[in-house]
Amino acid sequence: MSAERFETLAVHGGEPRPAAGGSVVYPIHQGTVFEAGPGGDAPYTRLGTNPTQRHLHGRLAALEDAEDAIATASGMAAISVALHSVLGAGDHLIAAGTFYGGTLRFLTEHAARLGWTYDLVDPADARAWREALRPETKAFLTETITNPLVRVGDLAGAARFARGHGIASIIDNTLATPVVFRPHTVGFDLVCHSATKALNGHSDLAAGVVTGSRERIARVASVMCAYGCALDPHAAYLLSRGLKTLALRVRQQHVNAMAVARLLDGHDRISDVRYPGLPGHPDHRRATELFDGFGSVLAFRPAGGTAAADALIAALRLPYTAASLGGVESLVTRVSGGEAAALPDDLIRFSAGIEATDDLVADFTRALGD
Ligand SMILES: *Cc1c(COP(=O)(O)O)cnc(C)c1O
């Protein structure tokens, strides 16, 4: 691990010294055509070798404590090319988690067509992983903090399990961000992100990230080139800029999420407050051991069912009613029960932004009629 603290890495990690052209801001190379000698290899945007893309890759690798990184056109592109890089027809995947809806849909709608089989298992139950293991198992997929139920599985145990059985371990670190947890440090092979969320943080671009060893990222990059889902250089530049403030934003989100979780926890009109920072959360101890902060996302249920949930959301003035997470603006949404199994219809997800804590707490207090 680098000796520098994360705040420093977010600003300086992967930045060339001396600065390119003397500018402390790395430029956008929007061009797709580069000169090469006769027969030589030239950078090419679809391959992710445009200088602005490569600059971003170096920054991302530094932040996730990885040898290498590749940026893709979305978070789903990152997850799907990561899976393609380790699974072929006839292979089996252990999918340990409840999973982001898009990831779950990718498996349910496309895995069979690709000749992949998978088992969905509990991320915290090591016995379930062992029982799911088959001779053809090639990969283990999980999420650092599950969405929307904010569970934290046995992450170090999962990476050990995968390594011990010679299978690739892949983790979606979107909800945690490398500020909270860096999965390579406990042995995960590939780390994926929807950079659309907290890494960029400003709700103004779609991007994905995969980090890992040079060898593994070369395989991921080869799939990405074949499918043609590299990140556009202009978006790469914006993402690199967004990363500069990642540590500050995520720490303020943590403070805000914690304050709102504390207000809701124990409130007589609210039940089932789920935030790993609360001592009553089933994974609180594990999250405290593994994490630096607990992220921006919490979930809860108001007394009175879906009508009460919708009324509370309508009464809030600061958060936008929108389904994303990790941005500078607070967002609130009712998570529909249809997508993942066993979600109550009145479950509200709140993604804390970077507003003043007191203003958010006052908004919730007023909306709850206190
Ligand atoms: C949003 C999200 C994704 C998908 O990211 P896109 O950039 O929208 O493709 C994947 N995983 C998690 C946990 C997410 O929140």
From TrEMBL:
Its cofactor is pyridoxal 5'-phosphate. GO terms for biological process: transsulfuration. It is an enzyme of class 4 (lyase). GO terms for molecular function: homocysteine desulfhydrase activity; methionine gamma-lyase activity; pyridoxal phosphate binding. The keyword Electron transport does not apply. Keywords: Pyridoxal phosphate. One of its GO terms (cellular component) is cytoplasm. Belongs to the trans-sulfuration enzymes family. This is homocysteine desulfhydrase.
